[in-house]
Specification:
Elements lengths: L1 H23 L6 H8 L3 H5 L4 H14 L11 H7 L4 H30 L3 H27 L9 H12 L1 H10 L4 H17 L2
Length: about 200
């Protein structure tokens, strides 16, 4: 019971942090603000680490639904999608997962990038996140190749870079927030464009 309560409190803190960082930015949000929004003490917020760590964890929590994952490939929802035998449903599942993840976190990602420019500790953490993201993209390319979606004569790193760009929060912000695309249209575009990039000569 205590573990469940701690997890619920942690989730509430990260949800509050994500909302505040999105609206007020990194410098405009204090630990006291987060504590007030989450309904906990500042000391409880501090148990989660310093402010830069809280921003990074809030993004990961918003994107993946958990801040305690080493790899998206082994993350429960992604693992379930990967277990799908039908290729069409697999690709649709990946597109849906990314589309929903970007919906929850794309603006917070912008705040994270902005904050990292002036915070050396956060920038170092962000570099680690980007390395894990690249590793996840390589795993995705390998799975797409295994299923026959992707050509094997192109360097997997180049394919991973292209897919990472397509799936990025920046792309979501431009197409959905900037150009007014609907969520279903964006999701359909993701699946179609990943296929196009994989099959390109």
């Amino acid at each position: 019971m205590r573990t469940n309560q701690a997890a619920a409190t942690r989730s509430r803190i990260l949800d509050a942090a994500a909302a505040l960082f999105t609206v007020a930015g990194y410098t405009g949000t204090s630990l006291a603000d987060i504590a007030h929004a989450a309904g906990v003490s500042v000391e409880t917020v501090k148990l989660g680490g310093p402010k830069h760590r809280l921003l990074l964890d809030a993004f990961t929590h918003s994107f993946a639904g958990s801040d305690d994952i080493a790899s998206l490939a082994s993350h429960g929802p992604v693992a379930e999608i990967t277990a799908e035998i039908d290729n069409t449903r697999y690709l649709a599942g990946i597109a849906h997962f990314v589309a929903e993840s970007n919906r929850r976190s794309s603006i917070l990602w912008t705040a994270l990038l902005s904050a990292a420019r002036s915070d050396a500790l956060l920038r170092k953490e962000l570099d680690g996140l980007q390395q894990r993201r690249r590793a996840d993209m390589l795993v995705l390319v390998d799975e797409l190749r295994r299923r026959g979606f992707a050509e094997t004569d192109r360097p997997r790193e180049a394919v991973a870079d292209s897919i990472s760009f397509i799936l990025s929060p920046e792309g979501y912000n431009q197409l959905v927030h900037g150009s007014g695309w609907s969520q279903p249209d964006y999701e359909t575009w993701l699946a179609r464009t990943v296929l196009h990039v994989c099959a390109r000569d």
